[in-house]
């Protein structure tokens, strides 16, 4: 259930940054001299810029907790079409997060409901304008998941409580979890209230919420870029058929720094993240449910690129595994630092699901690592990319 910290970045060795390869064009002694000189310069430069993230022998980088750091917890889920089970899983993640000293919990896209059909997803979307209250039975069941003595077998009792999806409020459940755990929470779900399509069909929003430790909604973001993709015999999804795009760029102050909100497919559009940084974002959030096909090809690449080019932390909570006969998710919840180094990785479907199962904790799982805003400031000070971008004259 608990995966504390995570795997090292596979592109590095023993936590070190790769060095510049030798030039094949310089002959003889000149080649040797230049290679040594270049290697020395690169090592000194990288050591200077990455000084705050040098690991101590025997401890993963993510386990170090500088005085200025704030600990976060990142959940990896396998959501189904049972809202009560999803809230129980989220409560279990919150309990583990609190036990390990986290101040904020990050949950993936569709944290509370993964429908088997478009119609089911639209039907279960919740109103933001009028949040209904859960029954005392459901609220108590959620509270019990936060108790140190909680065991997952209690789920069987909750299943027979008479609660159905129509009677469950994911938003009210999140509020309960935030208040009872004292955690800030990032989570995504579908909400009602979107305008109909051009042909008059109903649509919803894919909404990313930030709740504070008192259960108040501090910010919400409607996903802007919708996943309409068809890869023959592999992936075919058309999010825009049921979901309306948002238009607002959203940041939110939090105990760990200023958050920049996004969701899943947004990660492919760097212009959005440049806007977030212009608004002061320090930690970019990318809750997701990537497919195995697109995940294996691009997930790590895109997250590390956004982190390096914006000089921000990137926190990406992910869905993992088989949700139903139509949906499978890649997993690999990640945290990436402002230098593009992967601090923690929950694992996922690098090959088949059977092969992944041996190494990946069964969802719901959580890992923790530390966000150090001072490290971010140091990286930006030593390589002022945003200043250079603002001063550039593109024609």
Beginning-to-end CA distance, first to last residue: 53 Å
Q: How many helices? A: 11
User: What is the succession of H and E elements?
Assistant: HEHEHHHHEEEEEEEHEHEEEEEHEHH
Morphology call: globular
Number of strands: 16
Give the structural class. alpha/beta
The amount of helix comes to 25-40%
Mean pLDDT: 82
Main sheet record = 8 strands, mixed
Radius of gyration, Cα only, in angstroms?
22 Å
Q: What percentage of the residues does DSSP assign to strands (E)?
A: 15-25%
Description:
The chain is an alpha/beta fold and 395 residues long. It has helices at residues 28-49, 83-99, 118-124, 136-145, 155-159, 170-181, 270-278, 292-310, 353-357, 373-382, 385-391, and strands at residues 69-77, 104-106, 184-191, 205-211, 217-222, 228-231, 235-238, 251-254, 257-261, 283-285, 313-316, 318-322, 328-330, 334-336, 342-345, 365-372. Strands 1, 2, 3, 4, 5, 12, 13 and 16 form an eight-stranded mixed β-sheet that branches. Strands 8-9-10-11-14-15 form a six-stranded mixed β-sheet, with helices on one face. Helix 2 (83-99) packs parallel to helix 6 and helix 4 (136-145) packs across helix 6 (170-181). The longest helix has 22 residues, at 28-49. The radius of gyration is 22 Å and the shape is globular. It starts with 27 loop residues before the first helix and ends with a helix.
């Amino acid at each position: 259930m608990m995966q504390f910290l995570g795997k090292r970045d596979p592109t590095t060795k023993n936590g070190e940054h790769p060095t510049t390869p030798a030039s094949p064009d310089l002959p003889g002694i000149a080649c040797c001299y230049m290679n040594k000189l270049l290697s020395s310069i690169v090592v000194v430069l990288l050591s200077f810029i990455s000084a705050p993230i040098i690991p101590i022998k025997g401890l993963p980088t993510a386990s170090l907790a500088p005085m200025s750091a704030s600990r976060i917890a990142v959940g990896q889920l396998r959501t189904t079409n049972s809202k009560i089970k999803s809230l129980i899983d989220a409560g279990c993640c919150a309990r583990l997060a609190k036990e390990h000293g986290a101040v904020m919990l990050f949950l993936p896209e569709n944290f509370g409901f993964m429908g088997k059909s478009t119609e089911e997803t639209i039907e279960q979307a919740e109103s933001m304008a009028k949040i209904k209250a859960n029954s005392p039975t459901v609220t108590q069941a959620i509270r019990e998941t936060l108790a140190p003595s909680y065991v997952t077998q209690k789920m069987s009792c909750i299943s027979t409580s008479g609660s159905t999806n129509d009677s469950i409020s994911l938003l009210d459940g999140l509020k309960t979890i935030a208040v009872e755990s004292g955690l800030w929470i990032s989570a995504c779900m579908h909400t009602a209230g979107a305008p109909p399509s051009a042909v008059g069909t109903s649509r919803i929003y894919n909404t990313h919420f930030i709740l504070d430790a008192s259960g108040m909604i501090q910010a919400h973001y409607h996903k802007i870029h919708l996943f309409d993709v068809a890869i023959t015999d592999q992936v075919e999804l058309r999010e825009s058929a049921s979901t309306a795009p948002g238009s607002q760029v959203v940041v939110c102050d939090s105990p760990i720094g200023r958050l920049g909100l996004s969701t899943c497919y947004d990660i492919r559009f760097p212009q959005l993240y440049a806007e977030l940084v212009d608004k002061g974002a320090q930690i970019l959030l990318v809750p997701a449910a990537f497919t195995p096909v697109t995940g294996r090809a691009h997930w790590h690449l895109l997250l590390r690129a956004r982190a390096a080019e914006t000089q921000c932390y990137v926190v990406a909570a992910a869905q993992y595994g088989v949700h139903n006969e139509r949906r499978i998710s890649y997993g690999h919840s990640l945290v990436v630092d402002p230098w593009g180094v992967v601090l923690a990785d929950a694992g996922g479907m690098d090959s088949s699901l059977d092969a992944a199962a041996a190494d990946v904790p069964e969802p719901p799982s959580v890992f923790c690592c530390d966000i150090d805003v001072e490290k971010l400031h140091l990286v930006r000070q030593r390589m002022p990319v945003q200043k250079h971008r603002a001063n550039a004259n593109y024609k």
